[in-house]
Amino acid sequence: xxxxxxxxxxxxxxxxxxxxxxxxxxxxxxxxxxxxxxxxxxxxxxxxxxxxxxxxxxxxxxxxxxxxxxxxxxxxxxxxxxxxxxxxxxxxxxxxxxxxxxxxxxxxxxxxxxxxxxxxxxxxxxxxxxxxxxxxxxxxxxxxxxxxxxxxxxxxxxxxxxxxxxxxxxxxxxxxxxxxxxxxxxxxxxxxxxxxxxxxxxxxxxxxxxxxxxxxxxxxxxxxxxxxxxxxxxxxxxxxxxxxxxxxxxxxxxxxxxxxxxxxxxxxxxxxxxxxxxxxxxxxxxxxxxxxxxxxxxxxxxxxxxxxxxxxxxxxxxxxxxxxxxxxxxxxxxxxxxxxxxxxxxxxxxxxxxxxxxxxxxxxxxxxxxxxxxxxxxxxxxxxxxxxxxxxxxxxxxxxxxxxxxxxxxxxxxxxxxxxxxxxxxxxxxxxxxxxxxxxxxxxxxxxxxxxxxxxxxxxxxxxxxxxxxxxxxxxxxxxxxxxxxxxxxxxxxxxxx
Length: 498
Hints:
By secondary structure, the chain is of the alpha/beta class. The protein has 2 domains: 2-248 and 456-478, Aldehyde Dehydrogenase, Chain A, domain 1, CATH 3.40.605; 252-437, 3-Layer(aba) Sandwich (Aldehyde Dehydrogenase, Chain A, domain 2), CATH 3.40.309. Helices cover 39% and strands 21% of the residues. The protein has helices at residues 40-59, 62-78, 80-91, 95-112, 115-118, 154-165, 180-191, 206-214, 227-239, 262-274, 292-307, 327-343, 378-381, 397-406, 420-429, 465-471, and strands at 2-4, 6-8, 11-13, 20-25, 30-36, 123-128, 131-139, 142-146, 169-173, 199-201, 220-224, 243-247, 252-256, 284-289, 346-349, 368-371, 388-391, 409-410, 412-416, 434-437, 453-454, 457-458, 473-480. The protein has a 7-stranded mixed β-sheet with strand order 15-16-17-14-13-19-20, with helices on both faces. A 6-stranded mixed β-sheet has the order 10-9-8-11-12-22, sandwiched between helices. Helix 13 links the parallel strand 16 and strand 17. Helix 2 (62-78) packs antiparallel against helix 4 (95-112). The N and C termini lie far apart (74 Å).
């Protein structure tokens, strides 16, 4: 049993609120740690530390800020194995999946090493008579990030790396379910040369979230989680005068055309649907084969693959997936599977009663495969966030296209086909933020931006890529004319460039 507090002003500090939450080992069901839940006073201390440190950090030239991230990337690589073990122990995902979590965050840190170029602006000489005009990007001040349990390394780095590289200070509020890695990342940032106070980590629940959303010294908020909470965070941030980017739920479809390589498509569905026990906002949870023959052949391939999934603790290096994060998550997933059966979907592979010898109290759910799912069913409409794949049969391409187009969520989508015309038409017409063509999980690389459409995203600017630089800075435009070019006398009309 270990105790976790907060990271304020460059060091770990114990919680003082008297409130704590349990951190479980999802494979055994045992409580392995307690984490402090922040009080208003602790949030105030973290924000005060950030506010004091930010001006000096923003004044540091961008090359020096970039060097901190150069060193941080080096430290991440050197600490990859212990970080992955720490992450898996609290989340439950396999070690290799945990390393992928870390690497996708590391790539954003590599991207922001280019901040001297990324934050450059524009200059126009002679915009008017003896007038020069230029724009500059300046840090917003103190920002905050609220991150989910499913990527405790990647998503914090997606937020704090561009924010800090742009000259901001940052308050991170990670999930209280797996808080160890975010605390360790803050320590590594200090080791990399980040000044104390620029990055603070506050653990907490809704009370901490509300404290950040209403604090007058926080200028911008980034959030990833469920759609109802994303909508709440976005609205509350706006009411308190903060800019916000909030990313919510998903129900990602994969269209399988009759000409697709079905072996390739089936393998893609297995990895994208069951990797990390389906606890990914970009997981494929709906397979849409076009035509009965395509559907029958695909299902025939999927059944033995799902039945042979190896489910185990993160210590099993041959496991395809681990447990889900909490007992509550396990119960919710099982109840939705029950609901699918009640609604008339065919449960071809049933993982509800999966049990692993020696880990009977773990939060495991075996792989589940539904066929003949329809858009009216709850299992189609709801983000299950578990190892459940639903097959929705479509008669035509247009019918298949219509399914993700009409769904509430618009995070990710994929099409598997050999037909370039179909792929091009699909990518052009689909109203989804991230599209894969023969790519099952189309998460953009760090130099492009991540973000969905419809109820999957709230705010104008996405995560990482150039959008992140725009989000974490404000543009200031300067129009200058020196005394030698100024005519005598007052001017009372709107200035023009005549």
